[in-house]
Design brief:
Elements: E1 4-13, H1 16-46, E2 60-66, E3 70-73, H2 86-91, E4 95-98, E5 105-108, E6 112-118, H3 128-144, E7 151-153, E8 156-161, E9 170-180, E10 183-191, E11 211-212, H4 215-219, H5 225-239, E12 242-244
Parallel strand pairs: 1-2, 1-12, 3-4, 9-11
Antiparallel strand pairs: 2-6, 3-5, 6-10, 7-8, 8-9, 9-10
């Protein structure tokens, strides 16, 4: 199978809303193209000899970035899982957004790698469950290069450590996505050297009694952030049989 071409963009440090709007624009461009392609196909089948306008194919993107401190609540999330008032959020310089991704509450902050794949799954597999497992696999392979065994937790999306030991389970990467006409947006958030104190103000992902961790905490030293990004890019290409351009 030929590798899918995926346009890679490193957005650097970017406000959450700006990145969200950018993702939405890329998704809508692809959705519009898919609608036009379907309409053209329908016209062609009804008018066999008719001339039809050439329409471009969809474009895949993979965005990496980090955000200033922000809590985001998924469409199935509960506001009670935010343990701070609006006044406290403002006083501490933390933004808050209700989002249209899956999942519950999570935190994004500096030294956390956030990945937003804007993929047309009709170029891959039209299976959201498989897509989520693939995102997890990208992270599992990447942290595995540091000697950390990433795992899946039954019924809980994301990448975990020590899932077989009750009371020691800890999440290192949160995942929440949206899909429209098989085009994805939102994605994953891997804690590298992230300040984990921010997670004390929420019930992360709405899951009580489980910890959140980072590469820095697990390894005991400050990790090269750019090095981790390069590993994620490499493993994304492997898992999704794609070429970043």
């Amino acid at each position: 199978m030929d590798k899918q071409k995926v346009i890679f963009k490193d957005l650097g440090i970017i406000e959450y809303k700006k990145a969200w709007d950018y993702q939405e624009s890329l998704l809508q461009q692809n959705v519009s193209i898919k609608s036009a392609l379907r309409n053209t196909a329908a016209i062609s089948s009804n008018n066999t000899g008719a001339q039809t306008q050439q329409i471009p194919h969809t474009t895949n993107y993979f965005l990496l970035c980090e955000h200033p401190p922000v809590y985001t609540l998924g469409k199935s999330g509960k506001i009670e899982n935010v343990l701070m008032s609006n006044e406290e959020l403002t006083a501490n310089g933390i933004a808050f957004f209700n989002t249209n991704r899956g999942g519950d509450i999570t935190f994004h902050g500096l030294q956390q790698i956030v990945g937003y794949p804007i993929l047309d799954l009709e170029n891959y597999q039209t299976d959201i469950g498989k897509y989520l497992r693939n995102l997890e696999e990208v992270i599992i392979l990447s942290i595995g290069e540091y000697g950390i065994k990433g795992q899946r937790s039954k019924g809980e999306t994301g990448v975990w450590i020590d899932t077989e030991t009750t009371g020691r389970e800890r999440k290192i990467c949160a995942i929440g996505v949206r899909c429209s006409r098989w085009v994805t947006m939102h994605g994953f958030a891997l804690n590298v050297n992230t300040n984990l104190d921010y997670f004390n103000n929420i019930i992360p992902c709405g899951i009580k009694g489980k910890q959140v961790t980072s590469l820095q905490k697990e390894l005991g030293y400050y990790v090269d952030y750019n090095e981790v990004k390069e590993k994620i890019k490499k493993n994304f290409e492997i898992v999704f049989n794609s070429k970043l351009i």
